[in-house]
Amino acid sequence: MKDALLATVVEEHATLEAFASLLVYEQKALAAVSPLETLPGIVEKKTEFIDKLASLDKIRDTQLREMGLPSGGKGMELAIADDSRLAQQWQLLQGAVDRAHRANSTNGLMIRVRMNYNEKALAILRGAPGHAASGVYGPDGRIAAA
Question: What domains, with CATH codes, occur in the chain?
């Protein structure tokens, strides 16, 4: 049974590493001038990875319960206590989780910065109160009066 659990954790690790790599690729796309060309494909692939990781998590929890252990982190702590191969692979998986979490946080920040920039640019172009519209051309092609 532990061999099956080990195989699941190995597959989780490989999937999470691929997911973390995709997040780095997403960072590069978000930094591009026009990310809309690549982002839809990235989002689709991210969804596939998330679904696969959720499925592997359920499989791992089932395997733990079949071994008479609780599901989740507590069960894994007990499972790795007497299995160095499983412990090593679990540690690798946790490292990949940390890398993916950091990359995802960075991407979220990049998205928020881009959205704020776009909102401010639109407010200026619309001549919203509190935003200086001087130097911006109006619908008639003339620069708006200050």
Answer: 2-126 (1.20.58.300)
